[in-house]
């Protein structure tokens, strides 16, 4: 509200102390419009377009034809936990087919929401020591079946598959199947899919350190060349890929596990009580919603 005031004999227009209440009317350009605030430069049309569409979308800023729009993480990691709990709860014998169905749904969601890199934690190195031989054999047999049956899908959808970890511990037939799938999909570019198997983040860091030490010893690099970027390039899960932005873990256990070690500092964690066989679109979308609210200051 404006009113006239007298200052040193002059009449001036001044604003009253009363502020205008923010409106709740939906505005498609500035949804949270508040008349008490100036419109900042960051609220340009381009910035708004970046907000309502994936950050890694085409430069024409085309809006995805999806139920919801998200800022899409470049690299999503998933650890599907809770298979044993789920089967025990339902009085069923342990079977990893539901686990691998969740694995295929994860790939489908990453393709649908245009995630460029994905890591799916297949099997930890310690599980080979903790689980019975019958259980390990069942898991690996079904993994081999899935890779064989879904190779055509990977090829058709443009999924590049790379398995990392202590693969020499796997049965020879599974090693051959993995090699065949990797070779057949090596030129695919829509989704870079990493499958850690017989893997721990500690062993990954150890092997990266050994490779770097060998290069220093042979003289191809010097000690001064060793830095964070060089170490990251030698990690099997990373290499030239971006560090995971979002890590989803099912099963409800409040721990990261053995997938991320080097990469954990800046990753956004989404832990859900949903067990592996029940992993679906709702869980994935909840993780994306959670990612929108992430704090990117990293303690600054």
Features:
300 residues; seven-stranded parallel β-sheet; Undecaprenyl pyrophosphate synthetase; 37% helix; 9 helices; globular; 9 strands; two-stranded antiparallel ribbon; disordered N terminus; alpha/beta; single chain
Structure characterization notes:
28% of the residues are buried. 37% of the residues lie in helices and 15% in strands. It has nine helices and nine strands. It is an alpha/beta fold and 300 residues long. α5 runs parallel beside α6. The strands form two sheets. Strands 3, 4, 5, 6, 7, 8 and 9 form a seven-stranded parallel sheet that branches. A two-stranded antiparallel ribbon has the order 1-2. It has a domain of 175 residues: Undecaprenyl pyrophosphate synthetase (3-Layer(aba) Sandwich), CATH 3.40.1180.10. β6, α6 and β7 form a beta-alpha-beta unit.
């Amino acid at each position: 509200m404006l009113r006239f005031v007298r200052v040193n004999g002059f009449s001036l227009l001044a604003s009253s102390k009363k502020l205008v209440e923010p409106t709740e009317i939906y505005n498609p350009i500035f949804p949270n419009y508040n008349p008490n605030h100036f419109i900042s430069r960051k609220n340009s049309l381009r910035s708004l377009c970046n907000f309502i569409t994936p950050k890694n979308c085409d430069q024409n800023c085309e809006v995805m034809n999806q139920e919801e729009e998200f800022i899409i993480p470049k690299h999503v990691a998933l650890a599907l936990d809770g298979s044993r709990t789920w089967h025990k709860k339902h009085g069923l014998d342990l079977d990893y087919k539901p686990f691998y169905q969740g694995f295929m749904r994860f790939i489908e969601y990453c393709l649908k929401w245009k995630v460029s890199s994905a890591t799916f934690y297949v099997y930890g190195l310690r599980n080979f020591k903790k689980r019975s031989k019958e259980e390990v054999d069942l898991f690996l047999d079904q993994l081999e079946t899935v890779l064989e049956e879904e190779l055509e899908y990977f090829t058709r959808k443009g999924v590049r598959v790379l398995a990392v970890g202590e693969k020499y511990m796997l049965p020879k037939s599974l090693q051959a199947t993995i090699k065949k799938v990797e070779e057949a999909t090596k030129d695919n570019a829509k989704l870079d899919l990493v499958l850690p198997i017989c893997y721990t983040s500690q062993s990954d860091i150890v092997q990266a350190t050994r490779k770097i030490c060998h290069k220093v010893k042979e003289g191809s690099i010097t000690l001064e060349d060793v830095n964070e970027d060089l170490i990251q390039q030698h990690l099997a899960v990373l290499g030239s890929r971006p560090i995971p932005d979002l890590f989803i873990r099912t099963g409800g256990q409040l721990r990261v596990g053995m997938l991320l070690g080097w990469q954990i500092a800046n990753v956004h964690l989404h832990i859900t009580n949903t067990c592996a066989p029940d992993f679906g679109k709702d869980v994935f979308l909840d993780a994306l919603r959670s990612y929108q609210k992430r704090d990117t200051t990293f303690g600054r």
